[in-house]
Amino acid sequence: MIIISWVIYIPLQILFIPVTILGALLVAYKQILVSSRLGLSQTAIEVINGRWTMHVFGLRDDESTASLVSALPNTSLFGLWMCLFPLWVKYKISGKHAIYPRAPEPGSETMADLIIARTLYFDRIIERATGQAEQFVVMGAGYDMRAYGNLKQQKISFFELDQPSVQQHKLASLDSAGITSDHVKFVSVDFGNEDAFEKLVESGFDTSKKTVFLWEGVTLYLSEEEVRKTIQDIRNNAAVGSVLLADLYAERFLAFAQKGARKKTLDQTGEGLDFGLNLSTNYAEVLSDFVQSESMSVGETFFMGRNNDKGPFVVVVEMIID
Ligand SMILES: C[S@@+](CC[C@H](N)C(=O)[O-])C[C@H]1O[C@@H](n2cnc3c(N)ncnc32)[C@H](O)[C@@H]1O
């Protein structure tokens, strides 16, 4: 079936080239220009588009993401289908994932696999860590839908932190999609100049309960000072045994992502890149030095792209408060 899927896919994709280009333009227009006009995060859209793709291609069951995508004005479901239809047909014939989206062997991920692989690695740690936690805090939540899926069945309190504009927009979009959000406490915060913990406590967060803090796809948009301040805030206030899950980017990734047109589009929504680590050599040591410098210890890690000569481009890391 794999050979047949290629035989059908290649001519279909060639025929679809103009449709794919139009679809990509439509998605980019909504993601960049509509987000910018509404004062929203385009990078959060990039993530939910990736997670919708995972759902549609059977890589991850995520009905709530699929529902939310259809209610967001700053992405285009039609555009996504225009881009991905030939690959979807190929997937349906072969039952295998190729080109995009795919879940490569750990260590051999490329930058194109970023959202897909990163989401799966975070899922794995979250599944284990939430088994021992009573609270789940999504920091820089964007359109993350983990609090609305399987986790919702667990006896756990949910909090979402984000900038006010993005959070209000998510709430309105959840409402239009008919998704209940009563079980989640929404706390608006700017990690750059506000005390996230003070606001969390005001909204009912219990500092004596073990907590999983998820900080996915956010550190790269902050300065080192902001990243360290937020980590210190958590370490100084959260219960022992709590964990902070984050992705920390290699300087080489930041350099790549800030080249040319990509930089211009990020500037459009004020999402310039900043904090990174030099993961080109001795990456495990660089990471543990960083985590230990904030008096936390390293738990599970996924160094994505570590088989590359230039070292990993990002690490998904569990930081433990002990
Ligand atoms: C790439 S998105 C990731 C969204 C989400 N974590 C996910 O994985 O779907 C980055 C998110 O970080 C938030 N963010 C960026 N800088 C922030 C800041 N200084 N304070 C609060 N949130 C911030 C953005 O609003 C956006 O929702």
Automatic annotation (TrEMBL):
Its job: Exhibits S-adenosyl-L-methionine-dependent methyltransferase activity.
EC number: 2.1.1.-
Keywords: Membrane, Methyltransferase, S-adenosyl-L-methionine, Transferase, Transmembrane, Transmembrane helix
Enzyme class, UniProt record, top EC level: transferase
A single GO molecular function term of this UniProt record: methyltransferase activity
Alphabetical list of NCBIfam families matching this protein: mthyl_TIGR00027 (TIGR00027)
Family: Belongs to the UPF0677 family.
Taxonomic lineage of the native organism: Bacteria, Pseudomonadati, Pseudomonadota, Gammaproteobacteria, SAR86 cluster
GO BP annotations, alphabetical order: methylation
InterPro entries found in the cross-reference section: Ppm1/Ppm2/Tcmp, SAM-dependent_MTases_sf, SAM_mthyl_Trfase_ML2640-like
Protein name stated in the entry: S-adenosyl-L-methionine-dependent methyltransferase
Keyword Transmembrane helix in annotation: yes
Top-level lineage group: Bacteria
Alphabetized Pfam families for the sequence: LCM (PF04072)
Residue stretches spanning the membrane: 6-29
